[in-house]
Amino acid sequence: MSKKVQHILFSAPNASGFGGIAVVKNIIMAACQLYPDWKFSAILPVDTRYDSLKNIPNLNIHWTSPYFLRYLALFYEFFVEVPNIIKKIKPDICFSLGDIGPLSIKIPHFVLMHNPLINYYKTEHYQKHILPPFDLANKYKFAYNFWHFQQMVPDIATAFVQTPVMAEVTCQAFGMPPEKVISVPMAPPDYVISGLDTYEPFAPIASHPAKLKLLVLSNIVPYKNHGILPDVCQVLKERGLENSVHIFYTASASHGMGVNNLLARLAPYASQCTNLGYISGSLVPGAIKSSSALLLPTLLESFGLPYVEGLYLGKPILTANLDFARWMCGKGALYFDPFSANDIVDVIEKLAGFSQAELDTLIQLGTEHLQVFPKNWTEVVKKYFYCIEAVLQKSGPGVKS
Fold first, then answer.
1. From residue 53, how far is each of 28, 188, 301, 327 by CA, in Å?
2. CA-to-CA distance for 172 and 144, rounded, in angstroms?
3. Distance CA 14, CA 100 (A)
């Protein structure tokens, strides 16, 4: 990194979801370890899941207050608090780790985008299938986020996305030149890499007698498409598979939108599916290893940590036949129409009928596909900083000095 850059600010006041926290933590930890003589600052929401960052010697954390109206508080943070912190600590660059960030700051601004609700906002797929289930307040929020990022675009030095699919969508959505949108895939999370051979079986799944145990690992939001699960259970029942196939999902009241409705619709199928509730990161590998396969009917992803977790842990993946999923899984998955319960069950039956040799081949193809991902977060951060250095050296459009 250039000697001119010695202090980097990671701005992530809105990174409070499970996936966002995992990404932010891994990036910050890897950066601080990779450049121990550098000074790093971070703006983070108050959350105990960030506690592991408190003892890093070259990191200074600015905690945002736990506001009651969290989304409204972001206006204050991006328009007042973050700019004031930048003026006070005088970092050399700002690296926003959460899609939207401060506007018109006087230092080079790099952004990591990991919320597909912004990038895909103008696409037909989004307007037809993603937006309708959301309530009016969320529809206004998504529209605002799209507008806010549009205002950021002229001053962004580089926007980092997590797949080439997202890079293409981002360029089309915001009219950004390809050289300003760089794809850097994520590595497996630390909690997966650190104990590959030491995971304890996850008892609720491991002890279940079903022949095929499918894990739906994601928050309950409309675009994750959990609403198809009751129909899947019904088709499984009609085909006489209700005892041999069991679905495990992770619905928590904290997820908010649609949770109670989903639980009510799945209640008649209690013998076919189990709600595991929230699963902490340390338990995720054991849950995946205890499952037969991951079932991911999601309609939209920017990256999708469960994909790389499943591939890394050697599990088959059943997922939507959509562009983002095909890039993430390659030949290491079986694909279905996410709007058709019958098609989903067809794929489940196909997996159930696999010989051991066919299963081993599918898993091997998934393992081989892991070559498109960095091996660890140090590699990810090196790619970020290589791009940042190249942009700063070139002092191209959008880079402020």
1. 8, 19, 27, 32
2. 18
3. 9
Tell me, yes or no, if the two domains 7-187+375-394 and 192-372 fold the same way: yes
Residue 10 three-state SS:
strand
Buried b (16+ CB within 10 A) or exposed e, 92-112: bbbbbbbbbbbeebebbbbbb
And the tokens for 128? 């037809």
Give the residue extent of every domain in the chain.
7-187+375-394, 192-372
69, β-bridge pairs:
none
Q: How confident is the model at residue 396 (pLDDT cuts 50, 70, 90)?
A: very low
pLDDT of res. 95: 97
| Alpha-carbon span 119 to 223, nearest angstrom | 14
- pLDDT per residue as tens digits for the range 265-316: 999 999 999 999 988 888 999 999 999 999 999 999 887 889 999 999 999 9
What's 192-372's CATH class?
alpha beta
Q: Cα separation of 203 and 193, whole Å?
A: 21
From the list 25, 38, 15, 77, the residue with the least C-alpha distance to 385 is 38
Write the burial class of residue 254 (CB in 10 Å: 0-12 exposed, 13-18 middle, 19+ buried): exposed
What is the per-residue DSSP string for 119-149? HTTTSHHIIIIISTTS-HHHHHHHHHHHHHH
Per CATH, the number for 7-187+375-394 is 3.40.50.2000
User: The whole model's pTM is what?
Assistant: 0.88
**The pair of three-digit structure tokens given for residue 389, joined into one six-digit string:** 């250095």
Residue with tokens 């199928």: 269
